[in-house]
């Protein structure tokens, strides 16, 4: 993720990534009480563009607010810093990771000592380019009555790590997690869509992260004349699907080939997901 030359932004200064230091009594390190984002930049005709920067930094503000963390940088300042970060590191097609973490305090109430870090690196498509073999996870997504599921909180990702690790150990590529009512929710780091008889379907908001890529897919589907239904559904409905895909900033639009070894009816190239994956690439490289 970094080498000798890499620079990152830390609390108002540009520091060498290898010299970046943190307090080992950090509340975030001990309890996971930190918030973060995952953003991508792309080469466009007009130069490098941070895709939906405003939406990402608004979500960072939302996440911080939910965790009672005072974030001192505005959406605009964070956007400008992202561009400076890319320029200082000579990056164009990159993944940007802003992290808001807390300083020294072992109590269970957020300290006022808030740190902001931004780093970036070149990162290929997170889930790769091959059709993913999914398994239904034995882990549920966090319950909205036990945390703010729409906030991107560091600690929430222990659930994701457990789910992905279980899937890989069982010979699958990735997990698909259910919500507390046994409806399909999302992946460990991506939202999930399936298609059946020319209609797309995805879980409604409530028990999932409100993905920015998910929203982009809604916009692109409308342009293409594809209907998207937001509803609760069970794994059995997915077993009968014609196709499926994950959406996320890191994963982009990732083809899913099967769930629990039930393959989908259509070859990927014949699906709406395939067309949306192409439209997404076009979108991020032109906006
Ligand atoms: N769900 C989860 C749990 C995630 O971690 C992510 C990645 N941020 C997503 C969905 C997709 O969100 P986005 O499209 O905003 O990257």
UniProtKB/TrEMBL annotation:
Signal peptide: none
Cofactor(s) needed for function: pyridoxal 5'-phosphate
InterPro entries: Aminotrans_IV, Aminotransferase-like, B_amino_transI, BCAT-like_C, BCAT-like_N, Class-IV_PLP-Dep_Aminotrnsfr
Gene3D superfamilies reported for this sequence: 3.30.470.10, D-amino Acid Aminotransferase, subunit A, domain 2 (3.20.10.10)
Family: Belongs to the class-IV pyridoxal-phosphate-dependent aminotransferase family.
PANTHER family reported for this sequence: AMINO-ACID AMINOTRANSFERASE (PTHR42743), AMINODEOXYCHORISMATE LYASE (PTHR42743:SF11)
Name of the protein this chain belongs to: Branched-chain-amino-acid aminotransferase
Species this protein is from: Ulvibacter antarcticus
Gene of this entry: ilvE
